[in-house]
Design brief:
Blueprint (H helix, E strand, L loop, with lengths): L5 H28 L6 H8 L3 H7 L3 H12 L5 H4 L7 H16 L4 H11 L4 H10 L1 H18 L7 H16 L1 H5 L7 H19 L3
Helix pairs in contact: 1-2, 1-4, 2-3, 4-8, 6-10, 6-12, 9-10, 10-12
Length: 210
């Protein structure tokens, strides 16, 4: 098998660089002007590419916004939760809690949610994008984790979906939602740690067998 030609490798690098530039420009535009106030023409100008190039990478503004959400959640790596060891909930649940807290404290997550809230009634597809491409996969991965522990008998979880929502909700209610009303209310690292520890303790107290 022959390796890719230098020209093909160069084209792939250019393609990836333009895609990243479009995503960066779109994020800035959405945060500054909102979803409705941002056009693909404006994004193209901000990214220093043609509108045709934007369409080549993203078929619609909705898909571009969804890709921004997906990229924001990549650090959470929902898929990586499926590789965590089973049978050790006291050791693994703190890792999940810390990953989730880190994710919802990323600089762009809160402003993106504000854009979603502002547009959600008129454009419900934006909320669907968050569920399908962002928070939803992470929540589903936590649900699968509880299912695996329940099957092993290390946790007794009658409703893994509800348990996952409650677990993440205990963290976001302290770490994330207060900041939606007041940007100055970013929790200290110590408070984030205490919140994660309390959420883990609550899950173990509720779902440990016996």
């Amino acid at each position: 098998m022959t390796s890719a030609s230098p020209a093909a490798a160069y084209q792939r690098r250019i393609f990836r660089a333009k895609r990243a530039a479009i995503l960066d420009a779109a994020l800035d535009c959405f945060l500054e002007r909102g979803f409705a106030g941002t056009s693909l023409n404006r994004i193209a100008a901000a990214a220093a590419v043609s509108t045709a190039t934007v369409y080549r990478h993203f078929p619609s503004k909705d898909e571009l916004f969804a890709q921004i959400i997906e990229r924001t959640f990549l650090d959470g790596a929902a898929e990586s939760l499926d590789t965590l060891p089973t049978g050790q909930p006291a050791a693994v649940l703190p890792q999940i809690a810390e990953r989730y807290a880190r994710l919802i404290l990323t600089p762009h997550f809160q402003p993106l949610v504000r854009v979603l809230i502002a547009e959600a009634v008129r454009l419900p597809q934006l909320g669907h994008a968050l569920e399908q491409r962002g928070h939803g996969p992470f929540l589903a991965a936590v649900k699968r984790y509880f299912e695996r522990e329940h099957a092993l008998g290390t946790l007794v979880v009658a409703d893994p979906g509800l348990a996952a929502e409650q677990f993440l909700g205990m963290i976001s209610s302290v770490v994330f939602w207060p900041r939606m009303l007041n940007d100055q209310r970013r929790p200290s690292a110590a408070k984030v740690e205490r919140t994660c520890e309390a959420a883990v303790a609550a899950v173990l107290a509720r779902h440990r067998p016996g």
